[in-house]
Write a structure and sequence with these properties.
This protein is an alpha/beta fold and about 425 residues long. Helices cover about 35% and strands about 25% of the residues. The strands form 4 sheets. It has a 6-stranded mixed β-sheet. A 4-stranded antiparallel β-sheet has the order 10-11-9-12, with helices on one face. The protein has a 3-stranded antiparallel β-sheet with strand order 4-5-16.
Amino acid sequence: MDRLLTEITAREGELIALTQELIRIPTLNPPGLHYREVCEMVGGRLGARGWNVQMVRAEGARGDSDVHPRWNVVCRLEGAAPGETVHFNGHHDVVAVGEGWTRDPFGGEVADGRVYGRGACDMKGGIATSIIAAETFADLNPDFRGAIEISATADEESGGYGGVAYLAEKGRFAHVDHVIIPEPLNKDRICLGHRGVWWAEIETKGRIAHGSMPFLGDCAVRHMGAVIEEMEHTLFPLLAGRRTDMPVVPEGARQSTLNLNSVHGGEPVQDADYTGLPSACVPDRCVLTIDRRFLIEEDIAQVKREVTEMMERIRAERPEFRYEIRDLFEVLPTMTPEDAPVVRVVQEAVHEVMGKSAEFVVSPGTYDQKHIDRIGRLRNCIAYGPGVLDLAHQPDEWIGIADMVDAGGVMALALQRLLGR
């Protein structure tokens, strides 16, 4: 153990450089930029070290196009004897930069023991950590049993359908025994799963008319105002009263939540160079996108029924009220048992490296474990990685170097316990 941890520490500079190299490839999603470039970088590094490298385009998947193809890379290192397969999966896409940065978002700047940049925390630092951990273990244990896999996959930030979902549908996890996803949940936490999610569109319908005579039309935006008002009076208080036994973090996510993602009604937003005025029309449609996060104790059918019943109450009170609800996507909650093999092994490794017990948590939002569980039929999966979750998607995103080193030690020790002789 001491030799393994000493070597991980000795490779700190290499870990920093690899994290910087990943950050400097701006894999923005949407629309899906530089996906092949980052996959070739990861594959080139591991291929030069004897790993089998496969580039996989998710042809036909949601988001894939000839302009922005969804590229993934899967790398595998065979051991000297038969055994189990441990798979590290990390998404290579990052969200939009946003405003408020004081550093170059794709510069990979190092300062005060941190590496800065978009995706540093979520989750290129985690990918780099898993690569260094796997390389270090393999270098010190050339006779290990089984196999190690590392994948860098697309589109987790937009559902993962061009990444892990596609790989799972193609059977790429059928031979895998253990999965570790190095999402930034803090180095002393093991994430067992996530809440459920239902995204939907609610459309209220009206009738177009001249804006100077709105009484001849029917305003869809006013109807949507009634929907939001009813949510405030009934649905939001109802959800606030529900609590889960899942160890969801942060504390506020222990309840059911509803986010009003967007609302669009009336005249479309014109191009920036348009200098004219809006046309005088009564809006005949308004669309509200909702993001409903639900608990393992809740049933998805009831989650949807509550919204439909709310809409029916409004229809009973408003003349000519017409609406439509359209499903966008849904994911059921998942939680790996605390006594699952990968949980126990990582828990022991955290204690060895940090001298403390790992905290079990559940993520407030979904991540690619949903596809490994639902499509890949593999429950022995966790998220464990360096980084502070609250920094994800924020300006001046960063990851701590010491945290990466410690998490790398945990990952290497987990490989030692699962595949070492």
